[in-house]
Fold each of these.
Amino acid sequence: MTIQCPQCSTDYVRRAHREGVLERFASLVYIYPFRCQLCTRRFRVLQWGIRYAKQLVDRRQFERIPARVLVTFSGDRISGEGVVTNLSVRNCALQTATPLSEGALLQMRLQIWDRKPAVTIEQAAVRSVRPSSVGLQFIEFQGGESHRLGQFVSGLLGLPAFKSIPG
Ligand SMILES: [Zn+2]
């Protein structure tokens, strides 16, 4: 059974962690939450007779895909550049020589296509700092930038171009 996102109709979706009592009960009758990996919509699907082993449901909501994207960023008294080594539509790992600290807020510009303007992430938060890479969560996008990032991710996976979302 292929599960499709009701909003953008991709089948690149991921079983989401259950939230709250209602979803725990719902799973008893085979209704499970999913998260679209392109447009980020969360939705529930009836999967009659299917049981998930608890440990198979990753707490991470979005799967990161290996990539190599040049990025520039700036924030409060910080600016720099680096390379994104893997990403999803809501987070990424960044390699940079610029020291960043947990909790810092950055505007990021991802140069994902050669001849097109960079994808701008209006606000991203530094969530983890390791010697090898920095983990960032994307918090705010403007205009169609989130959709452009979704197109890039679906292209990395060789998925068909994903449907435009109204609004
Ligand atoms: Zn979707």
Amino acid sequence: MTTQPGDAATKKQLPPLPYCQPDISEEEIAEVVDTIRSGWLTTGPKTRLFEERFRDYVGSKHAVAVSSCTAGLHLMLMAAGIGEGDEVITTPLTFCATVNTILLQRATPVLADICLDDYNIDPEQVEAKVTPHTKVIMAVHYGGQPCRMDELAAIARRHNLLLFEDAAHASGAAYRGKMIGSIGDATAFSFYVIKNMTTGEGGMVTTNNDELEDKIRLLRLHGMSHDAWKRYDAKGSWYYEVLACGLNYKMTDVQSALGLHQLARLDGFIERRARIVDDYTRRLARLPELVLPKAREEVHHAWHLYPIWLQGERLSIGRDALIEELKARGIGTSVHFIPIHYHPYYQQTLGVKQGDFPNTDRLFAGLLSLPLFPRMTDDDVARVSDAVEEIIVSHRL
Ligand SMILES: Cc1ncc(COP(=O)(O)O)c(C=O)c1O
């Protein structure tokens, strides 16, 4: 099948469709403006309230708002005392922040390959990588689908390890009826602009462990014994002590104003995402060249991503050219992720190379994420699906 010149002209008239877009209501904008007027430009009462609401939403004992998920991951490792000589097992199919925060602590990231049914870390591979130096399993809930937490928790118990979670994609996800954020020893969420809920930049750490919470709060605020915002209110005192070498990883009330609203809308966002996913899957299922994402039956998937896996053997087009053809039709896509072992920095520092993790390598060769965000219309989904189908059909060998 070839594209007709007339088709191209029609397609050109369609506005560009990004791969992701936040949904910010007028009410939220008004609350942000009110917050600025209130004078609480940094951490204050709205951040406290956001922490409480998030804690109640996930059902954890504590929630600490931070400046990003990266900051949250770093704080979790710092608070647990992870340092030189320690090993942290994680997945090669993740964003660089998961690994960078381990390296910042001078600890060693140890990569374990993924399962091909959900693209999450494979518990059997994790077990095989445990050594006397292992201290933490860092589970990453790829695309919003929770990892096999029972299996990971059993390994952690057997070897006396901490189970940490990078839930950058998984706000609103659940595993066997338990919300992500209430299961592992500590969990970091991202509220970056394109995530399931957003504060522009921002994140949250949840934990049921009092000691970890205390340390994370301390380290979030330079290691100072007092919350800075208390210093400036009527009951505050000028006195503080530095008890540890901390950082400035706080969330502002301006961000929290947005976060409070976004949290209240999160379940609705995920419902809409799930409907879009069903629609995509129904439309694309007729293409045998695609492996489509599926939710495992024991999870509530947060559907942050819709990753498709192109099986290129019988096609004259590969993943990279498919991305370009979609781009030419005004459709944005992304790749989650260029695996850790493909990046020069980790090849040099960790001694890893392409081909080291066969499942990740196979998947990455054909992996791309289609547009997925709550404001997408049914017509947008049809447009993307039709474009994918048309390109694939026209490149069949
Ligand atoms: C898996 C994963 N972990 C961590 C992060 C970092 O999140 P943030 O941008 O909030 O620091 C991201 C961001 O995209 C991510 O995808």
Amino acid sequence: MGLGFQVLDFQITLPLNTFLAYIAYKRKFLECKAVIVSFVMGCIIGGFGGLALYMTIVGFFVVSSIFTFYKHDIKRKYYIVMSKGGTRDSIQVLSNGLVATVIAILYAMTTLKEYFFLAYIGTLATVTSDTWATELGILSSRKPRLITDLKRTVEPGVSGGVTLLGYGAALAAGFFIATVAYVFYRLKLVFTEFNGFYISPEVIYLVAIVSGLIGCTVDSILGATVQGFYYCEKCKTFTERRIHTCGEKARLVHGYEFFDNDVVNLTSSIIGALIGFALALTLL
Ligand SMILES: [Zn+2]
């Protein structure tokens, strides 16, 4: 098949993709529509991006799902503030994976493979850092501080709130994404002796860690500034939900209605990809 479609890689990734879709549905990691969206994205990334790109997003998905449901009972009480929680919907899946999917296609169809490979790592490191920082940082025993005014503390779950534990998790996420990407990049050399390009492990780790840390910082800054933040008169509580969990329409306190958590995630995933691409231009 033309267009850079990788038949061998697709034959390996399709069964795994089908199995993961089944698990995601069974264990309620994803809502029904989100299972379909992520299955389609997985097919595109597995076929065009190949094994290394596919396994990187699988790594993100599997470990992030485990972290999301880790100490779920403690986190559940913050869902009243957070825009969403627990089982992910199709919009959340798209806001995390759309940029990666587009890059996988560009990777297959252009000759700039090594640049798109690193842009892909940049966007994946950003969404992974952001997810781990949120899911683990929320368990911090210290109150989060607002990224735009570190003297102010905010409630756990509020966008823009950062903790040292969250940043530790973001750093670990960068290491993790680099490791998965590099291992499968090398593994492909064992079978086919050719990737079409060479990238050193140092560059892969540097790109993943730098884009992850900057990307999730951008996410927090957007969360503290432009993201819609509301007050529910009925429950006398602040929330990121336009329609509060009680069913009441909440009043906009700051930010823009259009900028919900998903738009913020999509924006930072684009910025993560741009950082990865820019680092590729500088380092390669
Ligand atoms: Zn309410």
Amino acid sequence: MHERHTRPQLRRFRNEILLPNVFRVLQWPHKTRDGYVRFLCPLCREFNTAVNPATNLGRCFRCERNFNPIDFVIEVQACDFREAIAYLSPLLPPPRRDSQP
Ligand SMILES: [Zn+2]
């Protein structure tokens, strides 16, 4: 099935699928320390990381890289963008009734 993804839909993937949920589904090592969710960086394999709950971005302070949920799946699964979207689709919460079509 071919599915077309609009810009607002992609924004939902980045904002509404919380990174800690992505870590859980991937069974990716993560832990909460000092009030922040820290995750194993898929690039340098260190825990010098934190999820910013305001932006839903995971940052590795060593690599100086940010990961949104789509980036993270691409990195961990070594897949392409379309496969990452397919992987994340089941995690997307149902659209709010008051949201724009
Ligand atoms: Zn890193």
